[in-house]
Amino acid sequence: MRYSLVELAPVVPCADRSAALELALRAAVDAEGSGYHRIWYAEHPGALSYASHDPATLIAAAVGRTSRIRLGSGAVLLNHHSPFGIAERYLMLEALAPGRIDLGLGRASSGPLVDHLLRRDRRAAASDDFGEQVQELVGHLHRAFEPGHPYASVDLTAGLSGVPEVWVLGSSGHSAALAGQLGIGYAFGAHINPAVLPAALRRYRDSFRATRFGTGKPQVVLAVNLVAADDERLAHELTWPARALRAGGRDRPIPTLEQARAELDRLERARPSAIEGGVVPAQVSGTTTSLREQLQPLVTETGATEIIVHDMLTDIDLRRRSRELVADALGALVPGA
């Protein structure tokens, strides 16, 4: 069973952004040593909670510190970018680390003000053309434009032996059919919208067709907010910073464990953090043993071949130990059919 990591470069109170970025790069080295298959850096424009504003910058820096682990974006928010610009940027990364670059694509609002600031033409009405953007980007990477298309003469791949592996990330199921029709991988945010997980994966598989843009078979990755410790009580408490951030607003640094304990009421602190009946809570916790017991039925039911881990831990020692234990748990799972 493959296991991977999404890194947000969480910013802690009274610390500068440089420290968060250094920890995010160190995470790639640690993940490689623990057998993680890939690490994806997130895109959070304008965020105070996370320092990972531009994944390409972190990917480029991580290339020089690692040798095996795949490096990618989780995700480029394509609604804020030009497909041509992203294709060119990630082909440059592929040239720096051949065979190791992933291009995860998504769409999301960064809030009305930041969305406005990111737009080049602020006079035109905003439009949702994500599907067209993804298809154009894939066209640039694989020179897949039909003869006579105005972009068919543009070759961004000259001198390259390979291209980034493209994924579509989603949490509502709307992008599932797009990923399936293009024959590329689909990563579902199970920690964001677990209720639609079965329908989204069914839609992906039903629409899948093999193309030269992917591996030729469906690839399903589940993104789960997952923390671990040597005992169940501490593991559960490690979910509190993420809960406090959700409850108190995201426009601030990540609460420490002590801050979260003070901010959350008794009911919120006690809210379950275990997968029960196939329902994935916003935060999942456990020991190595209990995580295996929780996750194996989910992997079997969904047919997932990889879990990508997301957490909001900022304590260096607890974070490193959690990711080591998570690796032990996930590495023992049997992939779904």
Overview of this protein structure:
The protein has one domain (2-222, 290-331): Luciferase-like domain (TIM Barrel, Alpha-Beta Barrel), CATH 3.20.20.30. The chain has helices at 17-33, 55-63, 83-96, 112-118, 130-142, 176-182, 197-207, 232-237, 240-248, 257-263, 266-270, 288-302, 316-331, and strands at residues 2-7, 38-41, 70-77, 101-106, 165-170, 185-189, 220-228, 284-286, 306-310. Helix 2 links the parallel strand 2 and strand 3. With 337 residues, it is α/β, with parallel strands linked by helices. It is globular, with a radius of gyration of 20 Å. InterPro entries: Bact_Lucif_Oxidored (IPR050766), CmoO-like (IPR019949), Luciferase-like_dom (IPR011251), Luciferase-like_sf (IPR036661). It comes from Pseudonocardia ailaonensis. Residues 20-304 form the Luciferase-like domain. This is LLM class flavin-dependent oxidoreductase. To bacterial alkanal monooxygenase alpha and beta chains.
Shape type: globular
How many structural units, i.e. domains?
1
**How do the strands line up in the largest sheet?**
1-2-3-4-5-6-7-9
Relative strand content: 15-25%
User: Quick check: average pLDDT?
Assistant: 95
Largest sheet: 8 strands, parallel, barrel
Query: Low-confidence runs (pLDDT<50, min 5 residues)?
Result: none
Oligomer: single chain
Q: Compute the number of helices.
A: 13
What's the CATH topology name?
A: TIM Barrel
How far do the termini sit from each other? Answer: 12 Å
Give the name of the CATH superfamily. Luciferase-like domain
Radius of gyration: 20 Å
